[in-house]
Every structure is written in structure tokens, then in C-alpha cells.
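Notebook p. 47: complex prediction with S-adenosylmethionine.
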Amino acid sequence: MYLVATPIGNLEDMTLRALRVLRECDVVAAEDTRRSGQLLRHYEIVKPLISYHRFNEARRSEEILLRLARGETVALVTDAGSPGISDPGERVVQAARAGGHRVESVPGPCALVAALSISGLSSAEFHFVGFLPHKSGARRRVLEAVRFVPGTLVLYESPHRIDRLLEELEGVYPEREVVLARELTKRFEEVVRGTAAALRSAHRERAWKGEFVVLVGADARGRRTEESAAAGVSRG
Ligand code: SAM
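Predicted complex, C-alpha cells below:
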């Protein structure tokens, strides 16, 4: 079984190996068959698709295991980026490994890595928080629990909850430098930085749209954060 990374926006971000694996596999297991169907069509790849998403993971994992046992090769893709990273994949990987099947990575785009590498924040040590839970209390508890984790914090958030997340960061990390990496690899890609409060008011004004990775600078950078807070929000 291959876990194949796919573009997070820019269709050119498809590796040669990813294309070959998709061409050579027996079946593509996709989070959304319609969406992955479009990607395959773009590359003129014709392949049977089965759906594999978080609501049918258990059932589909069994089916995928049966296929692997028959000697078929399965390529797992998600809507965007690397399977298994805040996306379906983990369960079938565990099942395949437990069943003694070979699992290979076909690495490529991943919003977390793309954002961290261009953020200007320390990447020597970082903690991937991913998506926070939905409920307010639980969200705050997670943010507080990672307060003393050394290094940069990296979060995923859906576009309509960015304001809420910035408000929560303002409460828990008022001093720290926050970076929004928006629309990575797309036309309106942008990196903006400032305190959570400054970014929140900028967001109110500019109504940023699209997808975001949110990064919080390490505690040790607090002093620099105060300087950038004075300057407000900056780009780059
Ligand atoms: N598996 C994917 C990966 O490897 O990055 C992540 C999938 S997760 C369901 C989707 C989240 O990733 C979005 O809510 C956003 O936080 C982030 N994301 C995905 N594409 C992005 C992009 N082009 N720019 C900024 N953030 C992105």
C-alpha cells in the first residue's frame, strides 16, 4: 500500500513518483472519489476509485486489507496533502502493518511542512497540534496544555474558525508571535505575522479568505514578539 501525497493547491506539486504509483496501482482509495477523480483526469490517469474516509474507515480498511492479501497494490490519497496528517489514513496503515503488508510513503505536499519552512519561526523544534477540538473548554485546555512545549506550535484551522482561534490565542498566548500562512501554493499565498490581537484586528479589516496554517512562536521569542506587536501586523 502506498500513501501518496497530492497537491495542497498548486497542481504542479505532484511528484513523478506519485504519478507513476497512481498509474501502476490496481486501485486508488480516496477520501473523496469525485475530487481525486478530477486530479486523476488532470493527469490522464484512469483507475478504479474506492472511497475511504473517516466515516467508513473501519469497513473500508477491511476491504483494502482483502485487496492487499490478494496481491493488489492500493494507493491511498486524500483531498489534499499527505494522507494520515489530520486526514484519514492512520487506521488502515495500522491494519495493513498488523497484517504484515508493506506500507510505503510517496511523500510530497504537506501544509504543516510548507508553512513551517516559510514562516520564519524556528523549525529546529516544533509541535504539531493539528485541529483543536470543537468545544470551547476543550480547545482552551489543549492550548494551555502545550504552553510549555518547547519550539514552534503548528495548528490547522478551518477558514470560518480563524477569528475564534485568534481570539483564543490572544487569551492564552497574548505575547507570542503568531504567523498565519494562508493559501499556500495558491495565487493568493501570503504569510502574515504579529500578535494574535494584531492579527485579529487585521483579519476583521481585510476579511482574509482561504485555508490557513496557524503557527505560534516559541516562548523564548517573546521579547521579539513585543517589538513586532508595537509594529502591528507585518507581511513576509
Ligand atoms: N493532510 C493535509 C496536509 O498534509 O497538510 C491536511 C489536511 S487537513 C484536513 C486541512 C487543513 O490543512 C486546512 O484546514 C488548513 O489548516 C491546512 N491546509 C491545507 N491546504 C492548505 C493551504 N493550501 N494553505 C494553507 N493551509 C492549508
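Notes: The domain at 111-235 is CATH 3.30.950.10 (Methyltransferase, Cobalt-precorrin-4 Transmethylase; Domain 2). DSSP finds nine helices and eleven strands in the chain.
Next step: compare against the earlier run before touching the bench.
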